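Lab meeting, item 3. Inverse folding demo.
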């Protein structure tokens, strides 16, 4: 049987890179999508021997085109990992329209833009795995992140609603909700704030991208068809839901 095809948005660095690597190791044919860094994409292509294609998830036309391209190169998409995400922090009373719009466009609209063009095919074929990366801060809130928390809470709501729509069609839809993970996103957090954050993590350290990737791979596997609409929290015990 042909190996299954997986698409990972923001799949060439951070958590996305770890997901691409894990799915490849698990035998998937993987297309990692990236927005800006051609050099990182080239390295990823060579290192992991996967496809790396440019796609801004905030642009619906980009998404439709890249999905068509993946389908023509690798075949129908079995697994979609919506991982791309950004932060643009500011307390709401200081937030500008751009910070709000950018985060909603990438973290929430990106989910629609990518999922809309694949969902029909998954339903028709009677099989699919969709895994959306949420965040602890969408579950518990965080100072300076009304935009990000709104988008990530939205990711969880989207996951539940779509899970209901597709349950009879062999398509599971789940969220993985990381706590603080050691990637470039967290590198932007000031050192003193990061120390305070670490002090709040019962496990006593940041998460590793590979630990998130294992959860994604678990939910992406064919053997696992009875978990749907769930949010798997992977946060070192920082927030228990
Ligand atoms: P990262 O900044 O290293 O990676 C983000 C990825 O998203 C990059 O590959 C980037 O190119 C991609 N991306 C950004 N804008 C995009 C766009 N418009 N179109 C396509 N791709 C785009 O961060 P990360 O920590 O690896 O984050 C991955 C996901 O995990 C994000 O959704 C993030 O919100 C979530 N998350 C991260 C943490 C953490 O502590 N690092 C915690 C909770 C949730």
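The presenter then showed the designed sequence:
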């Amino acid at each position: 049987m042909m190996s299954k095809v997986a698409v990972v948005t923001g799949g060439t660095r951070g958590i996305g890179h770890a997901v691409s690597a894990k799915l490849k190791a698990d035998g998937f044919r993987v297309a990692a999508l990236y927005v800006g860094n051609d050099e990182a994409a080239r390295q990823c292509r060579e290192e992991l021997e996967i496809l790396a294609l440019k796609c801004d998830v905030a642009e619906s036309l980009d998404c439709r085109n890249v999905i068509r391209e993946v389908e023509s190169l690798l075949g129908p998409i079995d697994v979609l990992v919506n991982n791309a995400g950004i932060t643009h922090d500011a307390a709401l009373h200081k937030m500008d329209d751009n910070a709000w719009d950018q985060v909603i466009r990438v973290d929430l609209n990106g989910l629609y833009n990518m999922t809309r063009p694949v969902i029909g095919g998954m339903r028709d074929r009677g099989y699919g795995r969709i895994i959306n990366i949420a965040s602890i801060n969408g579950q518990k809130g965080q100072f300076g992140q009304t935009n990000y928390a709104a988008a990530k809470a939205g990711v969880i709501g989207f996951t539940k609603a779509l899970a209901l729509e597709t349950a009879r069609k062999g398509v599971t839809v789940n969220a993985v909700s990381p706590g603080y993970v050691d990637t470039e996103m967290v590198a932007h957090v000031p050192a003193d704030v990061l120390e305070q954050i670490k002090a709040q993590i019962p496990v006593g350290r940041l998460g590793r991208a590979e630990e998130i990737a294992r959860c994604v791979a678990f939910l992406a596997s064919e053997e696992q068809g009875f978990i749907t609409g769930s949010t798997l929290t992977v946060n070192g015990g920082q927030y228990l839901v």
